């Protein structure tokens, strides 16, 4: 999956012209809201947390509360399941 | 979650069902629910809280409330009940909270409180949270992981996987960082919802040396913690894990 990183290493699905393109399998099967709640620090880069702790890439971790991302993903999967049932003629 | 139980001065008084004491020597003749903090700094007060106290002062002990604690008790002496699940214990010194080991006296014996360390140079510090060698990728059979005098060593080749993993899901409430001291082939460490790190990871990092993983926004809850790797056909990897811990 191709994603784009801003200056804070937040993941995006579209490039605003200032972002860095990366390829990753981490988000395969994940909805847009889930992807865009993550931070991906590529290998060779570092990110500094508010308390001064420095993290080296490669690192993939939520920057939004994971509970929100998980809820979005579950809703997405439920919508997919419902759509599949409709296509198959079920309830 | 903030539990509104705090006291300045260190003494629990007569209306609470526990006592917080400090010192380097285990107390003699302790009362039930004596919380002994292994510190030589004077305890000037304490607070139970799931999150870091907002206005700490020198000597203050922060007793973290945990979802799945190995030690819990009723904090009140009378028939009313506030159940405390005791997690990590920290004390405020020189501008920062420092983790201390601690024990609680219950039913005639002392029970240790886990300090976030899963593996420490050959030692598995806690019976509450042990580690084991596992298969961290569902598509790759289990390779070789061995516990040695001061490290865990792994070796994998030709479609195998191996990981050093917490025996059970760990309550990460309040922890902000997962750390590893390591040398070897580039490997992955992180949190997952089941035992297959590569199939259910929610946060992970890749490293060939010492590294850390930010957990600030991982939902407080319980997850497997794993350090592992997998090898494709014709590939061989190995490495040494010296320490794996949360803070």
How would you describe what is shown here?
The complex is a heterodimer of chains A (91) and B (247). Chain A is an alpha+beta fold. In chain A, 30% of the residues lie in helices and 26% in strands. Chain A is built from two helices and seven strands; from the N terminus they run E-E-E-H-E-E-E-E-H. The mean pLDDT of chain A is 94. Chain B is mainly β and 247 residues long. Chain B has one helix and 23 strands. Chain B has one helix at 197-200, and strands spanning 2-8, 19-21, 34-37, 45-49, 60-65, 71-74, 83-93, 96-100, 102-106, 109-113, 117-120, 131-134, 141-142, 144-147, 152-157, 160-166, 170-171, 177-184, 187-192, 201-207, 211-214, 222-230, 236-246. In chain B, strands 12, 13, 16, 17, 19, 20 and 22 form a seven-stranded mixed sheet that branches. In chain B, strands 1, 4, 5, 6, 7 and 8 form a six-stranded mixed sheet that branches. In chain B, strands 11, 14, 15, 18, 21 and 23 form a six-stranded antiparallel sheet that branches. The model of chain B is unreliable at 9-13 (pLDDT under 50). At the A-B interface, strand 7 and helix 2 of A face strand 20 and strand 21 of B. Strand 7 of chain A pairs antiparallel with strand 20 (201-207) of chain B, so a sheet runs across the interface.
SS summary, helix count of chain B: 1
Gyration radius of chain A, rounded: 16 Å
Strand order of the largest sheet of chain A: 2-1-3
> What pair of chains forms the biggest interface?
A-B, 21 and 18 residues
Main beta sheet strand tally, sense and closure of chain B: 7 strands, mixed
Estimated share of beta-strand residues of chain B: over 45%
**Class derived from helix and strand content of chain B:** mainly beta
Let me know the number of strands of chain B: 23
Write down the overall mean pLDDT of chain B.
85
Q: What does the average pLDDT of chain A come to?
A: 94
**N/C terminus separation of chain A:** 32 Å
* Coarse shape of chain B: elongated
Helix content of chain B: under 10%
Low-confidence stretches of chain A: none
Strand content of chain A: 25-35%
Largest sheet of chain A: 3 strands, antiparallel
Structural class label of chain A: alpha+beta
């Amino acid at each position: 999956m191709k994603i784009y990183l801003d200056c804070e290493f937040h993941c995006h699905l579209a490039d605003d012209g200032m972002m860095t393109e990366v390829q990753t399998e981490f988000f395969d099967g994940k909805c847009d809201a889930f992807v865009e709640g993550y931070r991906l620090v590529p290998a060779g880069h570092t990110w500094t947390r508010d308390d001064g702790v420095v993290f080296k890439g490669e690192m993939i971790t939520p920057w939004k509360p994971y509970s929100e991302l998980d809820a979005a993903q579950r809703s997405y999967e439920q919508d997919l399941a419902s759509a599949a049932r409709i296509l198959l003629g079920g309830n | 979650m903030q539990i509104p139980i705090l006291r300045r001065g260190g003494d629990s008084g007569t209306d609470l069902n526990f006592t917080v004491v400090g010192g380097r020597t285990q107390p003699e003749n302790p009362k039930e629910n004596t919380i002994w903090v292994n510190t030589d700094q004077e305890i000037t007060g304490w607070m139970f809280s799931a999150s870091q106290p907002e206005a700490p002062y020198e000597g203050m002990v922060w007793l973290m409330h945990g979802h799945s604690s190995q030690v819990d008790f009723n904090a009140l002496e009378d028939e009313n009940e506030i159940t405390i699940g005791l997690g990590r214990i920290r004390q405020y010194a020189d501008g920062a909270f420092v983790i201390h080991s601690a024990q609680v006296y219950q039913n005639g014996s002392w029970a240790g409180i886990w300090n976030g360390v899963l593996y420490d140079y050959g030692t598995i510090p806690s019976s509450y949270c042990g580690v084991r060698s596992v298969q961290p990728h569902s598509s790759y059979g289990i390779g070789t992981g061995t516990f040695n005098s001061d490290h865990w060593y792994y070796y994998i080749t030709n479609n195998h996987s191996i990981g050093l993993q917490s025996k059970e899901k760990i309550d990460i409430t309040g922890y902000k960082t997962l750390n590893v001291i390591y040398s070897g082939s580039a490997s992955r460490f992180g949190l997952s919802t089941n035992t297959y790190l590569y199939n259910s990871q929610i946060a992970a990092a890749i490293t060939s040396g010492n590294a850390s993983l930010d957990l600030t926004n991982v939902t407080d809850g319980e997850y497997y913690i794993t350090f592992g790797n997998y090898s494709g056909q014709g590939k061989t990897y190995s490495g040494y894990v010296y320490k794996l811990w949360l803070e």
